[in-house]
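Protocol step 4 of 5: obtain the predicted structure for the target chain.
Materials: sequence only (see below). No template structures provided, no constraints applied. The aim of this step is simply to have a reference model before the mutagenesis design in step 5. Sequence pasted as it appears in the construct record:
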Amino acid sequence: MPWSELERMFLVSGFSLLDRSGDRGLLPRNEKRETRKRGGASAAIVAVLLLLLLVSAPSAEEKQLSIYGPQMSYSLPVSEHNKQEYIALLAALEPFGNVSAGVDGEKWKLSFNNLEAEFRRDSNRGKVAGRRFGLPAPFVLEGNRGLVPLRALPGILGLMLATKTEYHEAARRLFLGGAATHFTTDVREGGLSVNFSAPVNPLISTEPGRLKMTFTRDPVVSSAYILRLENPLVSAITFSENNGRAELVVQGRVPLLAQFAAGGKTIDLVPAPSQAQSAPPAAAPGTATAAVSVPPPPTLQSLAAKPPFVVMLDAGHGGDDRGALLSETLAEKAVTLALARRLRSELQSYGLSAVMSRDADVTVPVEQRAAMADAARVTVYVSLHAASLGRGVRVYTAMINSASAKPGGFVPWDAAQAGYVLSSRALADIVKAELGKHEIPSSKLSAPVKPLNNVAAAAIAIEIAPSGADVGSVNAAGYQQRIATAVAEAIVVGRARVEAER
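Step 4 output (structure tokens):
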């Protein structure tokens, strides 16, 4: 709430934030003795007002970095140390190949494909791909996690990946290998089109006088930040970048709707139907009128009550394939099976049909898992994994370009996901949002996780990491239940989007 309003509330209640004489405190000096006699009531009022102040204070948005490559994009959380922004180097390299890291005394050593990197705790120097590398701030070591200053990441990735980088520092957006999506506008009769050089999948929101497109996974860039238009529908289009995303804000002279075309490469802006157009015809004089019922907005329960669709839960590994050995007594295959069973129970509580690739400790080849999903014509495929490194949950989508054609027909086995990757990314965004509501840290990545490319449905992989320092927490019932609840809610909320792409 505004400060003046809060101050007025204190004054009406007989309190002052700061009296004129400079006596700092909640009470004027000449009223403190009297208040001691009614201290219980006064303390209660103070507590309520302070609570209102805390509730009304805006929460800081989580900082994130978005990395864009020619065939992939992902976001990572940004942390702060000594007033400098840092990023986990291993997490930044994970989508590009085999990477591992470990601590050797005060040194942190990383191996990526055939290249090595080495840094020392609290040092501004390191070695990257055989070259000495200076850091703008000291290297930070948190347990087994190596954190490098965010400003150093473009140079490190450039050496490790042998590619050119372009870093938009103020917006925390990093482009690799010339990855960029440009756009142009096309004024036409009755509307306006925004044409992109590659398919895009923005989050679109509207409010009186403007329509906003938010791009988190698409490397949309522009040299013009404000475009003035002489158009009966649109007066201006503003482009901006901030916190790992880009935004196009369209200032409309009339309410607007956005419609996708050309396989996601074009967004048409057209006038929204007016209330006069959408209102029922007026009744003739003297005739009775029937009440018009307006359906309530969708909720988790109402969405789940629709005709059930099928979700496949693929518990990673199993049988002869134990997966990662998370501790001396805990194998990945046991964690994924326990999580799959919890998630199945949550989905069934919403009336959704959930099947499992395995419900016991048995061996199921990776190719067979995708074949099972495709043969059952599932609507959503969720692959489950676990790791000992990192914190929270990582949500993966396939590293594949989206197809311009609608899903359906015969497609190559290794490209079955191409027609569904946009809905998969949308679902991953919703999963991340729901995890945030349950206070579970998460990140979104595109990576070559098998068998996502072979699944002809909205497909994501979820990898859970410990909730704290104890690796065993990945198998804790409470932690898994929170994750299962969040993922189930995300699938229910995202159901309409997924079914539309089916």
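Step 4 remarks: The longest helix spans residues 39-56. The chain has four domains: 3-56, 64-172, 183-273, 301-500.
Proceed to step 5.
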